[in-house]
Every structure is written in C-alpha cells, then in structure tokens.
Write a structure and sequence with these properties.
12 strands, 440 residues, three-stranded antiparallel beta sheet, elongated
Amino acid sequence: MPRPAPLLVALALVTPVAAADPPIAGEEHPAVRRLFSPAGLATLREAARCDLLAIVCEREPDPDEERLGDGEEEEAYPVRRRVPLEGEVRRAVLEALYADVAAGAMLAMCFEPHHAIVAGEGAARVEVVICYTCFRVQVRDAQGIRGAAIATASEPLLNRVLGQDRTVPADLLAGRPVEAWAARLRGDDRDAAEEAADALADALEYAPGPAPPPPEEAPVRARWAAARLDLSLDDATLEEAAAALARGADLPLEVAPSARTRAEEEGVSVTLRLREVSGQAALDLLLAFCDGLAARAVEGRLVLEARDGPPPRGRWPEVKEVEVRRRVVQALAAAPARLTTRAAWALGAAAGWDEDPEVRAGAARAVAALEGDLVHEAVQGAREALLAHDEAPPARRVGAARLLATLRASPGALEALMLAAEEDPDAGVRAAARQALLGR
C-alpha cells in the first residue's frame, strides 16, 4: 500500500476539526442525568433542528392537524405553534429547563402539558413534554418514556420565545379562538358541534372569579379554606383568622397530619413538612384547593392571608377573562338546539354566579331559550350557584334565585328555592328565595 505524502500528513495534523458544542449549564446535575440519557442531552444541544412547541392537551388533534406523538404508544397533542431554537436562544431555554429539573417540585398526579421541545430525527429524536401546571416533565426517546418533577421558573422564558404572554392565551379555548368553536357549533357535523359546545362550556364552568371576600365573609372564607386544606383551626383561631383576613394581615396556621391524606384523595402527592419543601411549588399545589386566600412558608408554618388579584399558580383550570366569557355566552345562545347537557349546566351556573353582570344576563337569556332535558341541566347549574354559600356572594345567589323562579316547573328548581329560603345564611337571599317560591 502506498504511504501518504509527508505534506498530507502534516496538513492532517494541523487542520482543525469542528468541535462539539460545549456542555450546557446544568447537564451534569444528577436529576438531569437521571431524566436524560447522554445521547439525549447531546441531541438537544447539537441537533441541526430543535423546536419549541406550544401544544394543546385539552383535546385530541384533528386528522389534518399537526401533532406531537402517535396517539397509540404515547399521547398525541395538537401543535398550536412551532418556533425553531437556535444559537444562544436554544442554550438559554435548555439551561432554564435543566435548572428547573434540578430544583424539582412536588408532583401532582395530573399531566396537562402545554409546552414541548423536540430535537433530532429517527432513533436520535428526543421529545421533552412539559406540564408546568402539574409540575411534571416527560422525556420520550428511543429508550422509552421517563418522567420527573419540574419547577416553573423557566415557564415565562418559554412563553416569551413562543410569542405569548401566558401558557394558555386568554383568547383561546382548547387551542382555538371562540369564533372557531362557534362556527363548529353551527356546522353540519354533529360530533364537531358537540365537541364545540363542551369546549365553550369550559370557559363558563369555573368563572365565579377570584374576588377577595369582604370583611363580613372572612370567617366563612377562613373556615372553608381550613376544611379544604384540612388545617387545624379551632374556634379561637377562627376568630383570629377572621380579624386577620379582614385587615389583610398574615395568619400563621399549622398543617394537620391528615392533610397529606386529603391531598392524595384529591389526586395530589405533596410533602407537607414545609421545612423540607424547596421553592414555591408545594404551596402552589396546596393553593389548588384554596380560594380567596394566599399562602407562604414562614419558619415551617403555613401562613394564609387575604388574596387580591389573579388565582395562584397552582389553581386549574384557568378562569377566562370577562370578554371571552361574554363571547362564549353569545356563541352558545346563538345555537340553543345544538347544546349539550354540559353546556346547559354551565349556562345555568353562569347565570347565577358569574362575576360579570353582562355574562349573567346573557346566560339567563340563553337558558330561557332551552327546551326539554337541557332545561333540567340548566336548573342543576343554577341550583349549585344558589346553594354555594361559601363561593357565590349573596348578590349572585339572589340572581340565581330569580332565575330559578322562571324555571319552577322543572324538577329541582322548587327544592333548591326551598332549601335557600330556609338555610341560606344571608337574609336577603332567604327573602329572594321566598319571593321566588310565591311567584313574585
């Protein structure tokens, strides 16, 4: 065999070889190494194509819609937006992701992802599916599917890269605008119309609003929150709680041992020894069961305080803005014959307890146009609003009573009014229920 020329050998020795991209900060952390294989980390760092995806977990993808996952061995999610990650942006996103994996969190049992990172092709493909609501991340690669806990510090960065101000944009329901669902509701496809009615109903079912309780409701709020969290709260502490909440002051409470059982029954696994909790994640999970209060850890104690502003990070599903709810009510009212029982229930509830007068009035008009079994479902929604002593303020419960007065012929309406007339803690609500029973 001929020997290479000396000049070629010299050139080979001095010609630079393209170096691999340097490791990204956080890759060596044990938690990151347990979740990602070395090959997976290299793929995310060096693959020619790496994309950040906004995905939809609330529904299945349409046949012609881009999706993540095959829907057989792994869950399939519609892809709402795709943004290539390049250069320093890719490194910043991955560094933030690894930092959150290293920080960890208290896992919830749910998995409702809205973000994903995809890199590589074929056997080298890596999919990172992220649910910040439930503090979980899932990695899919050739070696299978693995999961871990994740903190939420990287969430704002991923949203900025995607060009959105929040994980679930305010004007979207299950990845589509209200107008797209309204068109499906009016269309000829009955299955699509049913899906649209339920998607629109989702925007109304959880819309009482996060208004802080007025001082006179503070004792009720404190007792209700304590019961939901299973906190130790005797009568003396309850009086202290009422006074503290009324003036917006901090209130230290101890977490009862049985709270762990309650959390597990609610589908959440969370460590309640606050001295051992890292970051805000566990408190966010606790707040998933708590309305009208905020909390933080102080020297191993849980401190509850009156909350003013949007729901805490751990609450789900997200309450939609007033303007979105108004458009939803208009869409449902325009197609009363295409509604589902779930949509009718949501309209009845919204007519009673929504925080916006226009939504309540529009929902009441929509209920008046319902027929048959849908009327019964609307009554059940209004009934829940009327009897929600701890959640709906008195003025809204009065509105629910007036709505039920127009539906007295439906089973359940009279029963709800009689219960409110006798048992509601507010004299004005009791009087409104009695007047409704008398047909006034």
